[in-house]
Structures are given as C-alpha cells and as structure tokens.
C-alpha cells in the first residue's frame, strides 16, 4: 500500500473513532436525561442502541487488526493504532454504562436522594470523556494531562454521594419500608459507581493519548 493510501486509512480510523465517541456520548447524555425525566421510551431507545455501539466497536477493532497485520506499523503509527485499539474498548464500556443508567431510570419509582446531584456528577464525567476525545483527535498530550487531573474531583463527589447513602441507611427507622429503601440505596450506589467508572475511562483515554503523542506511559495503570 502506498504511503498516501496508508495515511488516509490512519486518518479515517481517527475520524471513525471520534464518530464512535459522538454516538456513545449521545446515548450517555440521553441516559442522564432519562434519570431526571423518567422518560421510559427514551430510556428504552438508549438500551436498544447498545447494539449499534457494539457493532461499531467490532468494526473498528477489525480495522486496527488489519492495519497491524498488513502494514506492520512502527514508531508513531504503531503507538497511534495501539492506543486507538485501547480507546475503542473504553468507549464501548462507556456505552455499556449508558445502558446501565437507562435501566436504572426505568426501575426507579422515586428519588429518595434528591439532595445528591447525580445529574451534575454525570455531566462532569461525560464532559471529561468529550474533552479527552478532543485531546485524542488533536494528539494533545498536555491537554490530556489536564483533563485526567479532573478525575480526583469526580472521585470526591462520588465518595460523598456514597457516604450520604450509607448514612441514610444507618438512620433509617425499622418501621420505614426497608425493602424499598434498600432498593433505592442500591440503585443509587450502582449509579454512582458507574459514573465514577465513566470518568476512569476518560482518564484511560487521556493516558493513551499521552502515550500516543509522546511515547510516555506516565498515566497508564
């Protein structure tokens, strides 16, 4: 394959991965909306859309493998393809969390923990993903480092939310509907866990971007 055609394939791969992130974030943001509105048809559409994300992941995985096998990339091209291979896995997992969040929205009958701003935490985590993908598209390692540093704040917000739920469980009176309380608490804790993992995957994207751009594995763990 001529270098010009090879470079075109690399550029197409980058563009396709950014398009995948747009699809994933659209589903994720709609899932966050359903948690506020309890819009069951929208939640169901998010859940059903997981198949599209999974298929796109498989297509891009195949593209990466083909470039590895047929072009035997080296140096910067090798790091780009290897990093991209990892990043599409992170995006697929974020898509899974969008499905989870939509499912929680369908199951929830009431919001016992209105003082916990799940929408804010979710929006901040999603913004990290979007910004991380912009850094990837531009191969901007410095920007990726700045974005990764925001994870500490998400972790703190999630920890505070978890502590509030646990304190509520401790203080719940036995004459309350304990089964419903436990269900609400469990659902909220699962939601917080998933949002924290979304931000963790954003950090992964940043880590792979730094490695891709500078051959520096400082953020990879």
UniProtKB/TrEMBL annotation:
Ranges where the PhoU domain occurs: 18-102, 121-208
Pfam families, A to Z: PhoU
Subcellular location(s) of the protein: Cytoplasm
Keywords: Cytoplasm, Phosphate transport, Plasmid, Transport
Annotated GO biological process: intracellular phosphate ion homeostasis; negative regulation of phosphate metabolic process; phosphate ion transport
Residues in coiled coil: none
Major location category of this protein: cytoplasm
GO cellular component terms attached to this protein's record: cytoplasm
Subunit relationships: Homodimer.
Role, per record: Plays a role in the regulation of phosphate uptake.
Family, per entry: Belongs to the PhoU family.
Protein name as it appears in the record: Phosphate-specific transport system accessory protein PhoU
Lineage per the UniProt record: Archaea, Methanobacteriati, Methanobacteriota, Stenosarchaea group, Halobacteria
């Amino acid at each position: 394959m001529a270098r010009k055609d090879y470079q075109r394939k690399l550029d197409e791969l980058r563009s396709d991965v950014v398009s995948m992130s747009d699809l994933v974030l659209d589903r994720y943001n709609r899932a966050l909306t359903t948690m506020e509105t309890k819009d069951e048809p929208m939640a169901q559409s998010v859940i059903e859309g997981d198949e599209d994300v999974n298929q796109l992941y498989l297509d891009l995985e195949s593209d990466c493998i083909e470039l590895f096998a047929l072009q035997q990339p080296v140096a910067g091209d090798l790091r780009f393809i290897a990093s991209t291979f990892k990043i599409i896995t992170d995006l697929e997992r974020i898509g899974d969390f969008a499905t989870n969040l939509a499912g929680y929205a369908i199951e929830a009958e009431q919001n016992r923990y209105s003082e916990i701003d799940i929408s804010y935490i979710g929006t901040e985590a999603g913004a990290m993903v979007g910004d991380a993908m912009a850094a990837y598209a531009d191969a901007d390692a410095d920007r990726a480092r700045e974005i990764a540093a925001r994870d500490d704040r998400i972790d703190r917000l999630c920890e505070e939310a978890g502590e509030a739920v646990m304190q509520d469980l401790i203080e719940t009176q036995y004459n309350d509907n304990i089964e419903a309380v436990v269900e609400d608490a469990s659902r909220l804790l699962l939601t917080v866990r998933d949002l924290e993992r979304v931000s963790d995957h954003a950090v992964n994207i940043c880590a792979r971007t730094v490695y891709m751009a500078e051959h520096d594995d400082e953020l990879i763990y």
